[in-house]
Amino acid sequence: MKKLAPVLLFFFVFVSAGPLLAQDNLSPARKQAIDSLALEKVRDLSKYITIIGSKTTPWSEANRVMDRADELFMPGSQMGVSSLLHPKIQYYTVRKYFERLMRLNYSKVEIEWYKINYVSDLQRQPDGTYVGVITIFQKFKAYDKEGRLLYQDTTKKDITVYVKRKQTQIQGRMIGFWDVLLGDIRVKETSK
Amino acid sequence: MRNKSWTSATGLMMVVLFATLMIGGLSSCKSKKKLAREKAAAEYAARVEQAKKTLTAILDGTSGWSLDEQQKQFDTIKTYNIDDPEVKDLMVKVAEKLKSEQAEAARKAEEQRLRDQEAAKRKADVEKFKPLNDAFSQIAESETYSEANQRINNTLSLFATSEVPVLIIIDQAQGFNDYDRPTTIVKFLNYLKDMKAYSFAVESVKKDAQGKITELELIKK
To answer: What pTM did the predictor assign?
Structure first.
């Protein structure tokens, strides 16, 4: 047994540390895939916000999309909302924000996100989570029944993104995956 | 008397002529052998020189020959059994070089074979999964919610349940797949409807005894 001890120790250290090493030393290609995945999630959110805000979206579809959009976020994440009419930035939980967005008192709402880029690259934290910041520009336009533009602004927002390696069991086998979750979305500046 | 002296003079001349011919013949035979030796030595020297040139060209990579041609040249030179230290040294170096280049060529050929095999598999997969990929594309291209929902319902009939797991490969490296967070088929089909784009390809499917899909693996394009 004493002779076996070093062998067992070797297996314990190297076999159990294998996946850990794999995630610690990410190749540039893997890192790029994760960077792209996080950007993709922000683009997905952008689409979801457009759908939720659109007055042509059926109520049932908007509610379903709210659920999907909600799943993109860390629990308790907040969204900053600004207006050229009010100096104070309001923060709502993302679910509350989506519900308010759906109920906006305009006949037509157009929301477009553009210039979606990393402002701070994903950096590995001591707990293994990768954290980065993605900046976006949001163009908001609201119209009345006659199609007249009532309000518009452009807001720059920063979104914190968290990427963590996780495992789940699918049909009896363990699958490792990268879980991307969005955190708070903070307003940086608002202009006409 | 006169006739007698003439006869003896003729005899003497004949002896001298015979002796000259004998000596001349012998000396000609000797020089032929010498010439042959010299010729052989010159040929050997030329062969050594040519061997050096050939081996050096192979070693420097300036021969312009294919690997097979280089090997043939090397094998031919080997049959000469040249006993020259420089040639022997070059032979060792060239043998090593050819061995290493042949191993590298074999490795590249194997890589190419695997690439071809993978490409063939991909091509076969494209054909095999075309109906499924087309169904996903059509959902994404739907003009209205009702059209998209109708297509979603049709596509769902190919799956065992609406909760069939969908795995999305975001990267393939070092022999394993990196996945996005797993989702379900109903969520994925609605995702296509929302995004209005299908930027994936079916990588694999698992089916049950009824031929319904029980697991779907996609790869990001």
So the answer is: 0.71
Nearest C-alpha neighbor of B161 from the set B216, B213, B211, B207: B213
Closest to B205 in 3D by CA, of B135, B105, B113? B135
Which residues of chain A does B171 touch, with a Cβ-Cβ cutoff of 8 Å?
A: 29-30, 33-34
DSSP three-state, residue A41: helix
Q: Which residue out of B145, B181, B195 would a mutagenesis test of the A interface target, given it has the greatest number of A Cβ atoms within 10 Å? A: B181
Residue A90's CATH number: 3.10.450.50
Please measure the distance between the N-terminal and C-terminal CA atoms of chain B and give it in whole angstroms: 127
Looking at the fold, whether B168 and B202 belong to one and the same domain comes out as: yes
B171 touches chain A (CB under 8 A): yes
How big is the CA angle at A50 (ends A46 and A56), to the nearest 5 degrees? 160
B48 and B120 assigned to the same domain = yes
Structural contact between residues A101 and A52, judged by C-beta atoms closer than 8 angstroms: yes
Which residues have C-beta within 8 Å of that of residue A126, sequence separation ≥ 6?
none
Helix pair angle (A59-70, A94-102), 10° resolution: 160
Rg (CA), chain B: 43
Number of domains chain A contains: 1
Give A35-93 pLDDT, tens digit per residue: 999 999 999 999 999 999 999 999 999 999 999 999 999 999 999 999 999 989 999 99
Can you point out the beta strands (E) in chain A? 78-83, 86-93, 108-124, 130-143, 149-170, 173-191
Residues B118 and B28 in one domain: yes
Predicted confidence (pLDDT) per residue in B132-145, tens digit = 999 999 999 999 99
Interface confidence, given as ipTM, is: 0.87
**Amino acid occupying residue B19:** A
